[in-house]
Amino acid sequence: MTNYSQELLEKYKTVTTATITTVLLKHHGLKNVWIRGVFPLDTGQKRVVGSAFTLRFVPAREDLCTSAAWSAPISTRSAIEAMPAGCIAVLAAGACADAGVLGDILCQRMKSRNVAALLTDGVLRDLDGVKQTGLSVWAQGVAAPPSIAGLTFINWQEPVGCGGVAIIPDDLIVADNDGAVVVPAALVDEVLETAVEQEILEEWILKEIKNGASLTGLYPPNEETMRRFEEDRRR
């Protein structure tokens, strides 16, 4: 499991998913990094950052989807007990919308293990109870039926496709009110440096616009705009 420094994680919390997607596209040519259909399950959830801990589901098959599967060695329960503190659990459910991948009891255990957040392209059940756990959740919604009504759990910590995006264990996940984005592990440091600089520039541009400046030459910035930005930054 990749151990990202606390300093790096805190810096990423200052950068929006919108900025990260732009940086990954402009500087690395990566278009398919925003996880589709994944949004905050509750209001007021703060931006979260953490290493991806993946869980993979496939469509249900009756000989595999039984209540006995819940206590099998390979199960969501076993996966949760293997999650390290600070990770973001990424549950790849194939966008299944009619069977909840987890409910309040398992979410409470994740919260107790200091898991940073749960992210799934599927849905959850026990909505009121899940909210009461305090676990930050990004999902496509809720459904009452249990997971075995529509899904078979396969394994954890292997490459998955979630929301149409390839996610490798230990990739960095950033999630906020715009959804969630994956930053490939090999690019984490480089993307952070560029993204922080982009946030500083855009904050300055926004201030200029609030003061009545025209968009022409400002956004995107031309050479004269960048000169003024650097001058203001040195003051």
Estimated structural class = alpha/beta
Q: What portion of residues is helical? A: 25-40%
What is the overall pLDDT average? 95
Q: Biggest sheet, open or closed, and with what strands and sense?
A: 8 strands, mixed
Oligomeric state as shown: single chain
Per DSSP E runs of 2 or more residues, the count of β-strands stands at 10
Task: Work out the count of structural domains.
Answer: 2
Q: Nutshell version of this structure?
A:
The protein has 235 residues and is α/β, with parallel strands linked by helices. The chain is built from seven helices and ten strands. The mean pLDDT is 95.
Task: Explain what the structure shows.
This protein is of the alpha/beta class. It folds into two domains: 6-185, Glucose Oxidase, domain 1 (3-Layer(bba) Sandwich); 190-234, no CATH class. 32% of the residues lie in helices and 21% in strands. The chain contains seven helices and ten strands. The chain has helices spanning 6-12, 17-28, 76-81, 104-112, 127-133, 188-210, 223-234; strands spanning 39-40, 48-59, 88-92, 117-120, 136-139, 151-156, 160-162, 165-167, 172-176, 179-183. Strands 1, 2, 3, 4, 5, 6, 9 and 10 form an eight-stranded mixed beta sheet that branches. A two-stranded antiparallel ribbon has the order 7-8. α3 (76-81) links the parallel β2 (48-59) and β3. α2 (17-28) packs across α6. The longest helix is centred in the C-terminal third of the chain and has 23 residues, at 188-210. The radius of gyration is 20 Å and the shape is elongated. The model has no long low-confidence stretch (mean pLDDT 95).
